Amino acid sequence: MRTLLTSQQMKAVDRYMIERMKIPGLVLMENAAHGVYEAIRAEMEPCSVQVFCGTGNNGGDGFAVARILLANGYDVKVVVLGNPSDISGDAAENFAFFKETREFYTVITNREGLEALPEADVYVDAVFGTGLSRPLDGIYRIAAEFLNERDALVVSIDIPSGISAQTGAVLGTAVRADITVTFQYPKIGHFLYPGREHSGELQVVKIGIDDGCDIPLQAAVCVYESDDPDMCLGQRPLDSNKGSYGRLLMIAGSYGMAGAAVLCARAASRAGAGLVTAAACGDVVDVLQHTVPEATCFELADENGVLAKEAADMVLKLSQGKTAVAVGPGLGRGEAVEEVVSRIIAECDLPKVIDADGLNALAGHLEVLEEKKGEVILTPHPKEFSRLCGLSVGKILEDPVKAAVDFAAEYGVTLVLKGSTTIVADQFGNATLLCVGTPGMAKGGSGDVLTGVIGGLLAQGKDVYEAAITGVYIAGMAGETAAEQEGEYSMTPMDTVRYIGKVIDDMVVEYISADTIHGCGGGEYMPHRLQQPTEIVMEPIGTPVFQASEADAAEKMEAEETAESPAASAEEAMEEEEPTIVVPPVGEAEVQPDEPAMDFLEKYADDPKPATRAQRRRLEGLQEKERRPFFRHRAKEETEAADDMTEEELVNKVREELPPDTPKGPTRRKIG
Ligand SMILES: NC(=O)C1=CN([C@@H]2O[C@H](COP(=O)(O)OP(=O)(O)OC[C@H]3O[C@@H](n4cnc5c(N)ncnc54)[C@H](O)[C@@H]3O)[C@@H](O)[C@H]2O)[C@@H](O)CC1
Ligand SMILES: Nc1ncnc2c1ncn2[C@@H]1O[C@H](COP(=O)(O)OP(=O)(O)O)[C@@H](O)[C@H]1O
Ligand SMILES: [K+]
Predict the structure, then answer these.
(1) In the chain, where are the structural domains located?
(2) pLDDT class for 491, splitting at 50, 70, 90?
(3) Which is the closest atom of ligand 2 to the Cα of 419?
(4) How far apart are CA 431 and CA 424, in angstroms?
(5) Cβ contacts of residue 27 below 8 Å, gap of 6+?
(6) Are 162 and 173 in contact (CB under 8 A)?
(7) 3-state secondary structure at position 95
(8) Among positive and negative, which fits the CA dihedral 655, 658, 660, 662?
(9) Which regions of 344-490 does DSSP assign to beta strands (E)?
(10) Which of 103, 112, 182, 209 is a good FRET partner for 21, with 20 to 30 A between their CA atoms?
């Protein structure tokens, strides 16, 4: 799990370090530039590099990178876009060297100027960072388009120029980077499309903004990605029984849409619910009894295969003794459905997840949410959300985090806005982005699976925000596994259901105490969560921008100094050292799963970074196959060499080659 900052929060952190911690801005910029330089050096030996610089601090980073590259033998040209006399502050300090020597920079104002430049091996995009405030136009637009046409490595500093750090939106046009190097904290725009795709491989480097500033703790947005080690569940206690894992009441399906109920019920069971009770109209019950034998079923009153108003009394009666409700998949539409859904919300005090036709039933009747008795999770895709909130889909996607957070706060619900990046927002202004799932899930029925998983977790006693986040993670990871096994084109939602168990099994760790309700752990591992909306104060500078008083800060420093021995803190610091994280590139390369092996290998020979996990696995598999003869050959040589050794020499050699003791990871408790 990673904390994401907005541009405003990042600026506030920056100011804290400069004004309070007295780290000069130039030092931060130098550290940032070294991070970018390391990223380039890891990819390319000294070669020709053009650094496109704007006139703000992003450009300042660019000048510093250019200087470091020059000092390390790269052939560098700085391309200044905009008026050099606008360069000020730290950026001007870093520009000074180029201004003086004149030899390594040029100011470009039009396309002809760019086209007259020689081709380079690497282009660095240091035009705009978090300060982007309006769509790119003029020379900036031309330069972004020019960079996108280059057949060379493009490295963006902080965020691809033209991408909004807040929303991931393209403002006018935007650079498509192969690598983006950002500083200390990723930004929301790195994880929302189209920003996620434009960022390429994301690297996060430390620049000296460390502990001591509480703004990152106040951040309300965080992200989970595939295989995130922080996402875990506790073990089931050995002496538990089905009653320990809750009872889910599911109301789903109608004539012709029994499948939605089947997927939802199966997913809930796979997510661990102790008992799933499916309430539906007659035809659906018949199907459920055959396909989901583990569920108990009740027939509800219907009219032409869709719930009748009278069904509401039966549903409310059935809800007694249950621990959660899932309602909506495949319910169909009509006044009766609206009444059933409204009454469940207003009269049943259990936590509930509402999806699909449950959401359609709510659209236009949002006042019902003001009367809600139990906590509510809504799981719309953008179109369903548009029907709910009245904003157009386009408007929602302009700033989906804001749209989700605003709605959740206004109606006091947890909102799951589904998509290629799914956003979970709670009523306090917190949001979690989940970069899991696969285009293989873009197939009818995937949403029903998610509803079942969330319902199953709710039934087991998970808090609504946790159930929503964990549910999206599990369904997304199960979808990714299904895509690996069955292919992105062919996988079905039922395949996703099949792999839920594998995903959950990988998430179960021994070290979470099972005393969280019903043995479903994870609480303390979930993101830091604000209980009150927080505002980051930007003005006035220098005085109480940050809440802690001088006296508090001095006290805290003194306490920290006396609390730890230097050796212990150094050791801890090493342990806590955050590695540079690398987010796999997304979207760019569209490779069909059925592509012949050789074409696939050739396509990625120079750039082994296919778009999806499934594609990466496939590539790794093929590369491994390619390598095999070599390994066999080496193994044979080694055996022959070993034959010539005495036994003692052989034992010593093996000892030398043994890896040092590695710490043991969490293991599952053995039963029996
Ligand atoms: N915040 C931090 O902690 C650090 C920030 N650093 C760098 O500083 C950057 C932010 O610097 P700035 O705040 O100066 O912002 P930028 O360098 O991103 O750009 C701001 C300048 O561009 C202008 N501008 C914005 N959009 C424009 C458009 N479409 N067309 C023309 N002009 C436009 C603005 O008016 C402003 O003058 C970060 O992205 C990062 O690269 C680093 O130096 C390291 C430390
Ligand atoms: N390109 C994608 N990448 C990741 N996840 C996706 C993608 N497309 C769809 N999904 C996921 O699949 C599910 C689809 O839900 P939904 O649109 O409600 O489907 P349906 O109503 O047909 O069941 C959501 O959880 C969504 O996040
Ligand atoms: K940039």
Answers:
(1) 2-214, 233-525, 601-657
(2) very high
(3) 27
(4) 5
(5) 208
(6) yes
(7) helix
(8) negative
(9) 352-354, 376-378, 414-417, 422-425, 431-435
(10) 182
CA dist 84 and 18 (Å) reads 25
Q: Among 505, 512, 413, which residue's Cα sits nearest to residue 465?
A: 413
CATH number of 233-525: 3.40.1190.20
pLDDT at position 218 is 80
- CATH code, 2-214: 3.40.50.10260
DSSP one-letter string for 204-223: EE--S--TT--HHHH--EEE
Pairwise CA distance, residues 440 & 442, whole Å: 5
pLDDT at 610 over 80: no
For 83-134, write each residue's pLDDT tens digit. Answer: 999 999 999 999 999 999 888 999 999 999 999 999 999 999 999 999 999 9
CB atoms < 10 A from the CB of 434, how many? 28
User: Nearest to residue 554, comparing CAs of 211, 214, 215, 212?
Assistant: 212
ipTM score assigned to the predicted complex: 0.96
- Tokens linked to 454: 């969330």
**What pLDDT, in 10s, does the model give residues 557-577?**
455 444 444 334 434 433 443
What three-state secondary structure class fits 648?
helix
User: How far is ligand 2, taken at its centre, from the CA of residue 476, in Å?
Assistant: 9
Q: Are 89 and 117 in contact (CB under 8 A)?
A: no
Written in H, E and C, the secondary structure of 595-645 is CCHHHHHHHHCCCCCCCCHHHHHHHHHHHHHHHHHHHHHHHHHHHHHHHCC
For the chain, state the CA radius of gyration: 28
| Residue nearest ligand 2's atom 16 by CA | 447
- Find where tokens 């029996």 sit: 672
Q: How confident is the model at residue 660 (pLDDT cuts 50, 70, 90)?
A: low
Å from CA of 83 to ligand 2 middle: 46
